[in-house]
């Protein structure tokens, strides 16, 4: 019998009364386990097989699909499930993690990162900003290493800069002609992309960014991901739909507001 602690990053229905859960652990990486009877209301492991639960698990099988024998909740993050937007951003982050890594390949730094992402979202920090930081941190895991320290062509570290997907990094003003299709971004957006990509997540304080700048940062990240990642995640499509709902709600509220 094996023992591990891990964060549940995916839950799938399996047969009539079972679940398959996917854990991300510090020691063993990603592990998939069958939780027999977990869909039954009286199951002793139902409570420990919920998405975003951090728990301790005893299971059989050190290869392929194991079977949970017992589990114990170590930590829950209930505030995530209380807000649809936070739930959506957290779901996207664990989905991105799941699609980016193989089974049983330990990466303690990545485990620490996803745990902190969930922890910060559960603490009420800006889930959209946290997810953007996670997206940029995941680029290296996906095998992409954009240059954000300075111009990828000249090495200049002082802007202004634009971002070139063609050259995979920032390019300075005198290199703009090298990529007519570069992403033309404001200085503030460039600074945030550099910060999010380069900063140690452990040192990250609270970041206060207005909605418009956050939207521009997201456009840059999405454009890069669409070009290089090959990913097409349902959780990402749902986030995009939610963004459209949020924009429509603001329009409706504005139209309903009394004239000044």
Automatic annotation (TrEMBL):
Limits of the DNA replication/recombination mediator RecO N-terminal domain: 1-77
Origin: domain of life: Bacteria
InterPro entries in the record: ARFGAP/RecO, DNA_rep/recomb_RecO_N, NA-bd_OB-fold, RecO, RecO_C
UniProt keyword terms in alphabetical order: DNA damage, DNA recombination, DNA repair
Family matches, as SUPFAM superfamilies: ArfGap/RecO-like zinc finger, Nucleic acid-binding proteins
One protein family per Pfam: RecO_C
GO cellular component, as recorded: bacterial nucleoid
UniProt record, GO biological process: DNA recombination; double-strand break repair
Function comment: Involved in DNA repair and RecF pathway recombination.
Family stated for the protein in its record: Belongs to the RecO family.
Name of the protein: DNA repair protein RecO
Organism: Brochothrix campestris FSL F6-1037
Gene this chain is encoded by: recO
């Amino acid at each position: 019998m094996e023992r591990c602690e891990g964060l549940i990053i995916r839950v799938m229905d399996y047969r009539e009364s079972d679940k398959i859960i996917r854990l991300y652990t510090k020691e063993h990486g990603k592990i998939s386990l069958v939780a027999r009877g977990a869909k039954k209301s009286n199951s002793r492991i139902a409570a420990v097989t919920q998405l975003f639960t951090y728990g301790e698990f005893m299971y059989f099988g050190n290869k392929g699909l194991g079977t949970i024998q017992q589990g114990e909740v170590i930590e829950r993050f209930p505030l995530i499930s209380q807000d649809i937007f936070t739930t959506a951003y957290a779901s996207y982050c664990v989905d991105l993690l799941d699609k980016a890594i193989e089974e049983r390949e330990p990466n303690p730094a990545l485990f620490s990162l996803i745990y902190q992402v969930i922890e910060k979202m559960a603490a009420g920090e800006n889930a959209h900003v946290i997810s953007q930081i996670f997206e940029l941190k995941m680029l290296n895991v996906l095998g992409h290493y954009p240059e954000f320290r300075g111009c990828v062509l000249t090495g200049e570290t002082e802007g202004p800069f634009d971002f070139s997907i063609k050259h995979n990094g920032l390019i300075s003003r005198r290199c703009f002609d090298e990529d007519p299709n570069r992403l033309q971004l404001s200085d503030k957006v460039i600074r945030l992309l550099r910060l999010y990509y380069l900063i140690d997540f452990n040192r990250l304080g609270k970041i206060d960014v207005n909605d418009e700048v956050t939207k521009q940062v997201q456009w840059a990240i999405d454009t890069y991901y669409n070009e290089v990642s090959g990913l097409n995640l349902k959780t990402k499509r749902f986030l995009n739909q939610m963004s459209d709902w949020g924009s429509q709600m603001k329009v409706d509220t504005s139209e309903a507001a009394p004239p000044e």
